[in-house]
Amino acid sequence: MTTQTYMVPAISCGHCTATIERELKLVAGLQQVKAELATRQVTVEVENEAVLSAVEQTLIEIGYPAV
Ligand SMILES: [Cu+2]
């Protein structure tokens, strides 16, 4: 199990965090996700590191790329 925190500057309101959480929950191997408006951070817990690339790709696809 791996935990990773991303900075996602495009987060600007509660809809953003809800969208990110909803979409990342669809990624196979993702166990937990928390998107925070105040810090513009997305923290994920995944089964293994390989899942992180799918998480990063999904963030790009939905318009919230990690920096
Ligand atoms: Cu928003």
What is the number of beta strands?
3
The rounded Rg comes to: 10 Å
Q: Identify the CATH architecture.
A: 2-Layer Sandwich
Output the number of helix runs: 2
Give the CA-CA distance, first to last residue: 22 Å
Order of helices and strands: EHEEH
Helix content: 25-40%
Beta-sheet strand percentage?
Answer: 25-35%
Shape: globular
Describe the overall structure.
The chain has helices at residues 14-24, 50-61; strands at 2-7, 30-36, 41-46. With 67 residues, the protein is an alpha+beta fold. It has one domain (2-61): Alpha-Beta Plaits, CATH 3.30.70.100. Strands 1-3-2 form a 3-stranded antiparallel sheet. A hairpin with a 4-residue loop joins strand 2 (30-36) and strand 3 (41-46). The site of copper (II) ion (CU) has 4 residues, from helix 1.
Brief account:
The protein is α+β, with helices and mostly antiparallel strands.
What's the helix and strand layout?
Layout: E1 2-7, H1 14-24, E2 30-36, E3 41-46, H2 50-61
Bound molecules: copper (II) ion (CU).
Task: Based on the model shown, name its key terms.
67 residues, alpha+beta, Alpha-Beta Plaits, 3-stranded antiparallel β-sheet, 2 helices, 3 strands, 34% helix, binds copper (II) ion
